[in-house]
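Quick one, tokens below:
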């Protein structure tokens, strides 16, 4: 499906979020940065306070430990929830009619869980790919390949 003029494009992963706006039309994508946010990852020692827990076994040898919590993944999930809340707020304020989401598969899954029905029905493109470290031109090329629009003219 073509990406309409004024469509919102969310590019996110667990550490960085970009909101881009299509200033082109359905035939030619022209993305411009509207907002961005990035967080720094904390070190393991800053997030953990102790070794993983263990429990007593009724028989056998050794003490099995509980699976260790992945604090980095928890932070990434919270980041995705925050991005979804931004999208929900914008959808409820009628800030966009069409939404394209580009995120790694795990982040995309977290986003889907958190999207409001109003935001959900405006999603026209979902791409399960990590693109936050790429240029806007690369993101445009990806969207062009998926939506069959043309690339913006060189300026």
């Amino acid at each position: 499906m073509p990406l309409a003029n004024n469509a919102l494009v969310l590019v996110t992963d667990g550490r960085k979020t970009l909101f881009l706006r299509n200033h082109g039309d359905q035939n030619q994508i022209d993305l411009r940065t509207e907002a961005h946010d990035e967080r720094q990852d904390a070190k393991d020692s800053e997030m953990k306070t102790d070794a993983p827990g263990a429990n007593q076994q009724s028989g056998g040898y050794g003490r099995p430990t509980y699976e260790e919590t992945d604090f980095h993944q928890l932070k990434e999930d919270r980041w995705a929830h925050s991005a979804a809340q931004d999208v929900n707020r914008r959808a409820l304020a009628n800030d966009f009619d069409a939404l394209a989401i580009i995120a790694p598969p795990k982040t995309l899954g977290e986003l889907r869980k958190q999207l409001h029905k109003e935001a959900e029905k405006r999603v026209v493109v979902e791409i399960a790919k990590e693109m936050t470290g790429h240029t806007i031109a690369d993101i445009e090329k990806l969207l062009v390949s998926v939506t069959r629009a043309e690339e913006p003219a060189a300026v």
